[in-house]
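#onboarding

Welcome to the new folks! Below is a worked example of what a typical request in this channel looks like: someone posts a single protein sequence, and someone else replies with the predicted structure as tokens. Don't worry about understanding the tokens yet, we'll cover that in week two.

Example request:
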Amino acid sequence: MQIRKILVPIDFSPNAEEATRWAIDLARRYDATLLVAHVVQPVAWPASPDGLMITPADLLASTRAELSASLAEAREGIESSGIPAQAELLDGTPAIAIAGFARRAGVDLIVMGTHGRTGIKHALLGSVAEKVLRTAPCPVLTVRMHEAAR
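Example response:
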């Protein structure tokens, strides 16, 4: 099996930065392209007494513009290390969007950070990495920061 495309989903956290370092190293070793992606999950705001929920268009547009700029900056950082990279801003529920994009893009490996939540935090918040592990069309390498680095 050859690794030609590596996807690294990022949320701009230190955990994602650590996963990106791993992905860059793997891309270098396998002469692979790195796809860096962020998922926009629109926040719903109450819009009417009957419970209709929408995201204000101007808020969504400005958020997308800021995230696109941050994603482009991440791509440029990766490319400055000599690794070819592409950036994608995805929409939807993070785990579903990540697995779906990996499938459509023909990704060979996903490298992603995990926040290392346990107990009640894990039960309440869930784990995007865990959901991606279960639904991805390819192997997933999860990277957890060392306690000393936190």
